[in-house]
């Protein structure tokens, strides 16, 4: 179309011809022979059914734009040429004049005409919308699911296998539902997608991540301010010749040299927190010793690139009784009083880029726990109080399988709360508490006591209640 190809700074694609003011062009695909162009017209965030426009190069000139023959009177969006130009993958509603579930679909070319959209089946489709298919060399597909996550379906023996959600740091790096518009290299060596995450330039930015030898993905890299803007960037697809990336930006189509794929592969990867550090619990006058796992932080530049330090979560110095060994990532020391401490572990790479994770250390008073009883505990359990009936006091015993946030409450027979007997974090073990009614002004009768234990590391909840008989 007479354009000067772009360098490493993105420019508008075919302004005044394909990218027009007052219209939302979101996604474009160009055939391998360079003679066909299909692109999406969207209406988001306003209502309207997206459709595809088409340019064709014939008799030494471009003709169009025309509405794609398979796009008329149906939802069609986000086209991508594949299979040497004999197929276009897209998201579509294969049924004419009907609003419904958007399937991953494809159209096939026979001779010089295109057929109607065909669903790719289930899987990869489910009874919910799915968007932006990207087909790799073995016909496996990556796409955006309706929950905003990027998903892969392996193609095996003529069938698509069940969906696999790509792990962190591709997904789950933010709380924004972005429908990541994945584009994946034919050999699956890299993935390009949009996301809204810390350090971005505004709305959705485009990122690239590389496949590692172990099959995991590297920490995504922002493509930078020569491509991303304060506005919404979307649908970063590489042309079939591998030379350019096309994408939507602020309701226009843009293109840019794809040289960033190799350039960014060799720049510093920012380390990231892969696994949250679990909360810890210890008792007064007991030696605390805890090593942060070597899988907590990841640096995709290689092994042994991180150095470690620790502070309070506020940035202040550790308490005098607590030491941290950076070489082994180990905390040690003996607390002399109960309480909660919020701690921060910082990992810094060779480029002096840091990432941190925080956790809580809960120090409790050991008076109520039976000594050396951990080995006999194999379940959460609330025991019957003894004696029962009682006056004026009784003993309530309970066991904790793991470190837990514990609540024990007393209720009357109608369910009205009378008193909170326990409300603290406690280590695994067997406990006794004494209920003395002298200060509760109870009437004779049946009462209910309930144990609720929330496991510290998993948030699993155990709850059990029993009846007691108070005789005044």
Could you characterize the architecture of this molecule?
The chain has 472 residues and is mainly β. The chain contains one helix and 39 strands. The mean pLDDT is 91.
Concise account of the structure shown:
Helix content is 1%, strand content 46%.
Task: Give me the secondary-structure topology.
Elements: E1 11-12, E2 24-30, E3 36-42, E4 51-58, E5 61-67, E6 76-82, E7 87-92, E8 103-110, E9 113-114, E10 118-119, E11 130-135, E12 141-145, E13 150-153, E14 155-156, E15 159-160, E16 164-165, E17 183-184, E18 190-195, E19 205-210, E20 221-222, E21 233-238, E22 244-249, E23 252-257, H1 260-265, E24 272-273, E25 280-283, E26 288-291, E27 297-298, E28 307-312, E29 323-325, E30 330-333, E31 339-348, E32 354-364, E33 381-382, E34 393-400, E35 404-412, E36 417-426, E37 429-436, E38 445-455, E39 461-470
Parallel strand pairs: 25-32
Antiparallel strand pairs: 1-23, 2-3, 3-4, 4-5, 6-7, 7-8, 8-9, 8-10, 11-12, 12-13, 13-16, 14-15, 17-18, 18-19, 19-20, 21-22, 22-23, 24-27, 26-30, 28-31, 29-30, 31-32, 33-34, 34-37, 35-36, 35-38, 38-39
CATH architecture annotation of the largest domain: 6 Propeller
Could you describe the largest sheet, including whether it forms a barrel?
5 strands, antiparallel
CATH class of the largest domain: Mainly Beta
CATH-wise, what's the superfamily of the largest domain?
TolB, C-terminal domain
Secondary structure tally: strands: 39
Low-pLDDT ranges = none
How does the helix and strand content classify structurally? mainly beta
Number of domains: 3
């Amino acid at each position: 179309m007479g354009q000067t190809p772009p360098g490493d700074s993105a420019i508008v694609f075919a302004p005044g011809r394909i990218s027009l003011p007052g219209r939302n062009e979101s996604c474009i695909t160009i055939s391998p022979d360079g003679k066909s162009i299909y692109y999406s017209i969207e209406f988001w965030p306003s209502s309207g059914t997206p459709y595809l426009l088409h340019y064709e190069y014939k008799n030494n000139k471009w003709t169009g734009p025309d509405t794609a023959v398979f796009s008329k009177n149906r939802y069609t969006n986000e086209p991508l040429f594949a299979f040497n130009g004999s197929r276009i993958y897209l998201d579509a509603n294969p049924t004419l004049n009907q609003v419904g579930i958007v399937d991953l679909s494809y159209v096939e070319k026979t001779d010089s005409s295109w057929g109607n959209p065909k669903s790719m089946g289930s899987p990869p489709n489910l009874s919910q919308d799915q968007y932006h298919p990207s087909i790799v060399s073995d016909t496996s597909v990556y796409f955006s699911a309706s929950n905003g996550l990027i998903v892969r379906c392996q193609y095996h023996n003529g069938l698509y296998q069940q969906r696999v959600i790509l792990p962190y740091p591709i997904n789950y790096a933010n709380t924004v539902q972005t429908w990541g518009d994945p584009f994946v290299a034919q050999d699956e060596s890299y993935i390009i997608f949009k996301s809204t995450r810390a350090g971005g330039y505004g709305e959705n930015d485009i990122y690239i991540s590389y496949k590692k030898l172990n099959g995991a993905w590297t920490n995504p890299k922002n493509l930078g301010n020569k491509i991303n803007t304060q506005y919404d960037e979307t649908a970063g697809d590489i042309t079939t010749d591998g030379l350019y990336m096309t994408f939507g930006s602020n309701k226009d189509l843009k293109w840019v040299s794809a040289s960033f794929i190799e350039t960014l592969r060799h720049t510093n990867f920012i380390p990231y927190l892969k696994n949250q550090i679990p909360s810890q619990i210890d008792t007064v006058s007991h030696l605390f010793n805890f090593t942060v796992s070597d899988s907590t932080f990841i640096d995709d530049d290689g092994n042994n690139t991180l150095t470690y330090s620790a502070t309070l979560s506020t940035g202040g110095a550790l308490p005098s009784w607590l030491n941290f060994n950076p070489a082994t990532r180990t905390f040690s020391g003996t607390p002399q009083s109960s309480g909660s401490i919020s701690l921060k572990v910082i990992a810094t790479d060779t480029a002096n880029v840091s990432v941190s994770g925080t956790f809580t250390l809960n120090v409790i008073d050991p008076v109520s726990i039976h000594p050396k009883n951990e080995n006999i505990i194999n379940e959460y359990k609330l025991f019957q109080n003894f004696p029962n009936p009682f006056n004026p006091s009784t003993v309530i015993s309970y066991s904790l399988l793991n470190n837990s946030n514990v609540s024990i409450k007393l209720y009357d027979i109608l369910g009205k709360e009378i008193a909170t007997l326990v409300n603290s974090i406690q280590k695994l073990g067997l406990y006794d508490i004494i209920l003395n009614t002298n200060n509760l002004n109870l009437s004779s009768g049946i009462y209910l006591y309930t144990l609720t234990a929330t496991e510290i590391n998993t948030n699993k909840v155990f709850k059990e209640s029993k009846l007691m008989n108070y005789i005044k």
